[in-house]
């Protein structure tokens, strides 16, 4: 998910990593013929397993199943693979991402997979000072917290408390915590307001929420946040707020030189004609010994089905028999967040010469959370603003030209007038995507985890559930998507044998 608050800043005490070297670009910027090897002929009549959705999770499940000898077919609604992961090729050369991009330590499944596929990482740029804008006043700082003493105290306290709560949560069963119902009934906004000194802490908290969740602190429960943080680790390292959010050493430590979409593109190439694009699943009928998967390109019979599409989109499929009510309640209670990425491209990352990291936080305007999004080669220079939650509600509805102006003005306030004159401006609003419906992730509303949470991975007849939201580590991230795909494949292999 998301990319959380940024860098070594914000809510205090965030690990500040010193490091941050930009790696050298590897080889030519490969453009992405996502459709290259996929099948264009008629779909097979019958396979062992149909996988619904060619995002990272579905493709991972198919890759594991195929390696174990199962006959598998991935059916994908779009004319491309990758789902919430999408490369954007810059006019000046190089690649950035319109969707998921950052990876970091303990995300070992996506890192191993990328490594196997020859997709290399480079460190996010973190040298120099960060910019902080409040009440029209700009300041710079190094270290973890903006120069705002009242927030510093709040942040340290909040961070300690939420890490403490996270340490008590079972990543595979947050609903089983003795205080689950109580924590699930309180929104993070209410919880924070109760114990903080400064009202500015609320505003800054949104700089964590908006990019991470495409939503605001008033929309999710403390139980969700504690669980989300608990999952930001692996089997050996517990998740912490710092890990879920920081740049160096955290969830935004590194990016992929060829762009993150190269991971699903290469998986799809390996799978070849086992991937069918432009094949949205409309109906799934479970009858006799088979699941019948109806797509726009025909119907395929399978012994097992792995559904790996964003949770709310499962409800668009016509199910026979009908999905159990408890699963429908869960999915209806997990809408996608609202998020867009807005990038401005410059000949060079001019802010670096001025001693700035390219990272910024603001209490106002369109550019609440900003990162240096320059490709590995160091040029062209790219600034990225996450526009999510209530900021998206304000700026997402504006005509593109007005939003662009607001974003560039925000960049200029942080990094100088030069920011007003990009050589390219590009933006991606995930709420407009038919087959994603928002981003970065589906968010359970308060009360949903404690009441319907146990349904999240429960198979329905021959149907098993993948997708990052079903992961128990790094849920919401690309790493969680890989883990969920692997887990669903194991479930299916158990049943096939
Ligand atoms: C703007 C943004 C920024 C993000 N930043 C990061 C980040 O920095 N780091 C990180 O790790 N993660 C990030 N994420 C999250 C990350 O992208 C996701 O966790 C991950 O890609 C989800 O993979 P998935 O396979 O579970 O789902 P998806 O990628 O959503 O794949 C689901 C697939 O199912 C298909 N589909 C849907 N319905 C049907 C149907 N009926 N029939 C057939 N196919 C269907 C879709 O087209 C899609 O291809 C970000 C996401 C967004 C949107
Ligand atoms: Mg998928």
UniProtKB/TrEMBL annotation:
Residues binding substrate: 386
Names of required cofactors: FAD
Binding site residues for FAD: 57, 76-77, 281, 469
Pfam name, any one: Amino_oxidase
Keyword annotations of the record: Oxidoreductase
The Amine oxidase domain, residue ranges: 56-493
UniProt KW Nucleus keyword: no
Signal peptide extent: none
One GO MF term attached to the UniProt entry: oxidoreductase activity
PANTHER family in the cross-refs: AMINE OXIDASE (PTHR43563), AMINE OXIDASE [FLAVIN-CONTAINING] B (PTHR43563:SF1)
Family per similarity comment: Belongs to the flavin monoamine oxidase family.
Protein name: FAD-dependent oxidoreductase
UniProt source species: Nocardioides antri
């Amino acid at each position: 998910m998301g990319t959380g608050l940024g860098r070594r800043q914000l809510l205090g005490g965030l690990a500040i990593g010193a490091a941050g070297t930009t790696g050298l670009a590897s080889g030519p910027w490969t453009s992405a013929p996502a459709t290259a090897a996929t099948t264009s002929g008629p779909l097979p009549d019958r396979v062992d397993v149909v996988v619904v959705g060619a995002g990272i999770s579905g493709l991972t499940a198919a890759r594991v199943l195929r390696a174990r000898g199962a006959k598998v077919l991935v059916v994908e609604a779009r004319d491309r693979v990758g789902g919430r992961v999408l490369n954007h090729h810059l006019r000046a050369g190089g690649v950035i991402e319109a969707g998921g991009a950052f990876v970091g330590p303990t995300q070992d499944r996506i890192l191993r997979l990328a490594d196997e596929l020859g997709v290399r990482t480079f460190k996010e740029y973190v040298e120099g000072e960060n910019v902080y804008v409040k009440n029209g006043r700009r300041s710079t700082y190094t270290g973890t917290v903006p120069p705002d003493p009242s927030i510093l105290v709040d942040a340290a306290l909040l961070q300690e408390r939420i890490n403490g709560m996270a340490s008590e949560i079972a990543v595979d069963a947050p609903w089983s915590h003795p205080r689950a119902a109580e924590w699930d009934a309180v929104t993070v906004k209410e919880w924070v307001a109760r114990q903080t000194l400064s009202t500015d802490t609320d505003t800054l908290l949104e700089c964590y929420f908006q990019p991470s969740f495409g939503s605001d602190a008033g929309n999710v429960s403390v139980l969700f946040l504690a669980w989300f943080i608990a999952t930001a680790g692996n089997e050996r390292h517990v998740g912490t707020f710092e890990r879920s959010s920081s740049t160096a050493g955290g969830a935004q430590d590194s990016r992929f030189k060829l762009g993150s979409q190269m991971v699903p593109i290469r998986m799809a190439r390996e799978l070849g004609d086992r991937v069918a694009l432009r094949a949205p699943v409309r109906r799934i009928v479970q009858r006799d010994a088979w699941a019948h998967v109806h797509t726009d390109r025909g119907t395929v019979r399978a012994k097992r089905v792995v559904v790996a599409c964003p949770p709310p989109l499962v409800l668009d499929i016509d199910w026979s028999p009908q999905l159990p009510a408890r699963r429908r309640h869960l999915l209806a209670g997990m809408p996608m967040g609202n998020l867009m990425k807005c990038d401005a491209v410059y000949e060079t990352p001019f802010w670096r010469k001025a001693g700035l990291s390219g990272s910024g936080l603001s209490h106002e305007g369109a550019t609440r959370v900003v990162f240096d999004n320059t490709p590995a080669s160091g040029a062209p220079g790219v600034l990225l603003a996450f526009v999510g939650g209530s900021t998206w509600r304000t700026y997402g509805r504006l005509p593109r030209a007005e939003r662009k102006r607001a974003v560039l003005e925000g960049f200029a306030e942080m990094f100088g007038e030069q920011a007003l004159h990009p050589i390219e401006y590009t933006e991606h609003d995930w709420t407009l995507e038919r087959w994603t419906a928002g981003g970065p992730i589906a968010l359970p509303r308060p009360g949903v985890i404690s009441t319907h949470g146990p349904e999240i991975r429960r198979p329905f007849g021959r149907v098993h559930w993948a997708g990052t939201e079903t992961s128990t580590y790094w849920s919401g991230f690309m790493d969680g998507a890989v883990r969920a795909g692997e887990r669903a494949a194991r479930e299916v292999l158990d049943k096939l044998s």
